[in-house]
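P.,

For your records, the input lines for the assembly:
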Amino acid sequence: MKKEMPSCPVEVTLMLISNRWNVLIIRDLLEGTKRFGELKKSINGISPKVLTANLRAMEENGLLTRKVYPEVPPKVEYTLTDIGYSLKPILDDMVVWGTEYKRKIKKTTK
Amino acid sequence: MKKEMPSCPVEVTLMLISNRWNVLIIRDLLEGTKRFGELKKSINGISPKVLTANLRAMEENGLLTRKVYPEVPPKVEYTLTDIGYSLKPILDDMVVWGTEYKRKIKKTTK
DNA sequence: CGGAATCCGACGGGATACTG
DNA sequence: CAGTATCCCGTCGGATTCCG
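Structure tokens returned:
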């Protein structure tokens, strides 16, 4: 079973995106539906096990949907739900902040 | 030594806030300077070891400053830097998103 | 192709006791 | 008061191999 839902909203958000890969997966899926292999390729260095684990967790949390096509060879597509997509502003903010941070830290430490 | 700085801005941001406590610490310090004991009390359930570890890491990352008063009994104050404080918008977004998420999920699963 | 299975190490974190 | 010092544990993630 999954973890408890914290009462604090910040913790809730963190619970969903605070691991190493989830945000990067979301980032990729913001461009649109993708297949397992596409995700694996575009997310540099993730192992299939970890990718699967993260995708399943995110599915369970309602951030994305998994669609299996009963074909040979198999085909599985992942798509963000509306809830998942609504994280976009936060991701955008993180891009901005991260960029700024790198700039400032460089000045500070150099 | 600390971790490598990722090139991707999102990863940079995540590196700094993706653990269980850092965001909550920032959240507390957004109200203003606080002492070790105050943080420990207001952050529910954190152990002194972990709190120390996180504070030191955040200090090293330039998110906050640590000020020691050479008194007996000791007094140590923690204050956000400008960089640390600039995370506020993201935290605010996380509050909003987390609140929405809880609302929507309740509808879905119930 | 999209995983599942296995093994394994590292790290974050928890509880508790102790100290300058 | 503000930490250290231990010890211990669980989870995440990495690498690799195998399967339907």
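Two observations worth noting. Chain B has six helices and three strands. Residues 9-108 of chain B form a domain with the Arc Repressor Mutant, subunit A fold (CATH 1.10.10.10).

Regards
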